[in-house]
Write a structure and sequence with these properties.
The protein is an all-alpha fold. It folds into three domains: 120 residues, no CATH class; 444 residues, Growth Hormone, Chain: A (Up-down Bundle), CATH 1.20.1250.20; 50 residues, no CATH class. 69% of the residues lie in helices and 1% in strands. The chain has 30 helices and two strands. Strands 1-2 form a two-stranded antiparallel ribbon. The radius of gyration is 26 Å and the shape is globular. The protein starts with 16 loop residues before the first helix and ends with a strand. The relative contact order is 0.13. The N terminus and C terminus are likely disordered.
Length: 647
């Protein structure tokens, strides 16, 4: 076996029932002639066998399963697939050849000049997409803004409602814990209930229906919070709000990832975090707008009630817009609805040949992945199937890190932090708005770089600065309170920290988690990932007020700075890169053994030091070359399945 093959999934490739109405494909297409490409000079019994041969991966590449097939074989298979599923045969044949040779479309005589123009435009102007696609992006972005507002409006509201509802933290330790519990209640619900509704809701209603359900829950709970008069009633309303936040935070990134073209998937899925940051800023704007609203007869605390109700407006926008958008083509294909999937893809791509190419290639890769699916418990398979386990490890690492890097301690208690630093209440809210604006603005550069440089470089270049800034902010609290430098330095440290967070750990976790799981466990994997992030979000929101009291700001910020340093090391060793590949091609990336990946990253770090600092001319190795035969020896065949796993 050649180097690198040990990491590749060499499973069979069944091109059968989904496209042949229950009949084996080999019964419907004649065997290729002797000597056909991919046949190795023999007579395969079917094109299915030829595809099996083509699936063998080449060293250092993410293989295209169609690359070693002849044009006639691909055309015959595409025609059978199209006819069996009522798809346009002409365009499926064209799209199949483009999928086979994506960089050689200019030489394909089957394509018209218009087809070639559309393919050339896609390559040269990758952000040119149809209006429907950008309408989908806008809807998903507004859905993210709803979550951001739900997170940040509490920062201004808690300046008022704790006193009115009898849980002012200045009075007792019990009240500090109750205040933290009320603030963090939605995220407790997300962790224990909301996120786990993602899978059943998506199965029943699809991506669009789930997002609409979440919008309705958010609207109801925003009104509910605004009419409460006891702390426990507000706690219940905010807990139920988590049923809207949890599935929404899982489904929207998946919806974006499944609908976006691979070259710009990272940038488009990242809109989730950019507009979450934008929503956080809007939440602070709502706090400022309603700060001076006076009480009315029979309405005490009208200002904080309006703050908590404000997110219902963007939720209403999402609810109105979603029915006019196409469903995820991948979700439709997983349900066997190929004709609807093609129509949805056509609306998203705006070109018959591009839509046909994507539908056909997704089908081919899904069939390859399907051959490795065990029909057991999908949650168990997140850990028992090694390809899934590596994706789960990377996803959960980033989701945990998004909370324990310290950001939401600042989001929920920005006004409290700035008040403790010496700001007046209105000045603290203005400073909080500045924090939200920084969070939003500095997420934009990540859109432009995530698909160019990748996910890992954004994280590895930002965690060290975040750790330094958190230490800096904590140490600034030793400056005397009457010093103007104290206020300026604390605000500066928080803003710089936020700028680097927004370029790395802010946008990457949801983007990464939405793309790394195979389709058959994608919903359950994203449920677990978002459950982890919201559970630790709850822990941060609950414990931050007592930590400030017990450890003072210096110790509290130092705690989160240490976690930033730990997360840097974990990302370096255990996080595979995912940029630029289709969702199906990521199967190969996650076939690299974790130990090989970690050893390679340590070697690669040393190589960069020796090459750029010591100026040595040592040759560089790719990850695929680094493992060599050591990885091959770790292959074993799972008994009772068709799956080849790696240790």
């Amino acid at each position: 076996m050649s180097h690198g093959h040990g990491w590749k999934n060499q499973s069979t490739f069944p091109l059968t029932a989904a496209m042949t109405e229950g009949k084996p494909f080999q019964q419907q297409v004649e065997a290729p002639a002797a000597g056909a490409a991919g046949s190795s000079g023999s007579h395969p019994e079917s094109i299915n066998e030829t595809v099996i041969q083509a699936v063998r991966k080449k060293k250092g590449e993410t293989a295209n399963p169609l690359a070693d097939l002849s044009a006639d074989e691909v055309l015959a298979h595409a025609q059978a697939f199209a006819e069996a599923n009522n798809l346009p045969v002409e365009y499926l044949r064209k799209g199949a050849l483009v999928a086979k040779s994506p960089n050689q479309y200019d030489s394909l005589s089957i394509l018209s000049d218009e087809d070639k123009f559309e393919l050339r435009r896609e390559k040269e102007r990758k952000f040119w997409q149809p209006k429907t696609f950008y309408n989908l992006v806008i809807a998903c972005s507004v859905a993210a803004a709803v979550q951001g507002m739900d997170e940040s409006v509490i920062s201004g509201a808690q300046l008022f409602y704790p006193k009115q509802l009898g849980i002012d933290g200045a009075e007792s330790e019990r009240n500090r814990w109750l205040n933290g519990l009320v603030n963090a209640a939605p995220y407790l619900c997300c962790g224990v209930l909301g996120c786990w509704l993602t899978d059943p809701l998506n199965k029943a209603f699809g991506r669009r229906g789930t997002i609409m359900f979440c919008s309705v829950v958010s609207i109801i709970c925003c009104i509910w919070q605004a009419v409460t008069n006891t702390w426990w009633h507000l706690l219940i309303a905010r807990f139920v709000l988590g049923i809207g936040i949890g599935p929404n935070s899982s489904t929207v990134p998946i919806f974006s990832a499944e609908c976006a073209p691979a070259p710009i998937r990272g940038a488009l899925v990242m809109q989730w975090q950019v507009f979450t940051a934008f929503g956080i800023m809007l939440g602070y704007v709502a706090d400022l707008v309603f700060f001076h609203v006076p009480n009315k007869p029979h309405i005490t605390g009208l200002n904080w009630r309006l703050m908590l109700a404000a997110p219902l407006l963007p939720a209403l926008v999402v609810l109105i817009q979603m029915p006019f958008l196409p469903e995820s083509p991948r979700w439709l294909m997983a349900k066997g609805k190929y004709e609807k999937a093609y129509r949805a893809m056509l609306r998203l791509r705006g070109s018959e040949v591009i839509a046909a190419r994507d539908i056909y290639y997704i089908f081919i890769l899904q069939e390859e992945s399907e051959s490795t699916v065990r029909k057991g418990n999908r949650f168990v398979e997140l850990f028992s199937v090694l390809r899934n386990r590596r994706a789960t490890l990377g996803s959960l690492l980033l989701m945990f890190g998004q909370q324990f890097c310290g950001i939401n301690a600042i989001v929920y208690y920005t006004a409290t932090i700035f008040t403790n630093a010496g700001f007046s209440e209105i000045s603290a809210l203005l400073a909080s708005w500045g924090f939200g604006m920084t969070n939003c603005i500095f997420a934009i550069p990540a859109i432009l770089t995530i698909d160019k440089f990748g996910r890992r470089p954004l994280l590895l270049s930002t965690f060290p600065v975040m750790a330094i800034m958190l230490l800096f902010v904590g140490f600034c609290f030793w400056i005397p309170e009457d010093s103007k430098a104290r206020i300026a330095l604390i605000a500066t440290g928080i803003y710089v920290y936020t700028a680097f967070y927004s370029s790395g750990e802010g946008p990457v976790p949801f983007t990464y988690s939405a793309e790394v799981y195979p389709l058959y466990v994608r919903e359950i994997g994203m449920s677990l990932a978002t459950s982890v992030t919201w559970t630790f979000n709850f822990i941060v929101g609950l414990t931050f007020p007592p930590m400030l009291e017990a450890f003072k700001p210096q110790g509290t910020f130092a705690w989160y700075a240490c976690w930033c340093a730990i997360l840097f090391v974990c990302v370096l060793l255990f996080l595979p890169e995912s940029k630029g590949l289709t969702l199906e091609e990521l199967d190969q990336v996650f076939s690299v053994p974790t130990g090989v990946h970690a050893r390679y990253q340590l070697w690669n770090l040393g190589w960069h030091f020796r090459h750029y600092i010591l100026r040595k001319k040592e040759p560089h190795q790719t990850l695929w070359e680094f493992g060599g035969d050591d990885a091959d020896s770790e292959i074993f065949q799972d008994k009772g399945t068709n799956q080849v796993s790696t240790a």
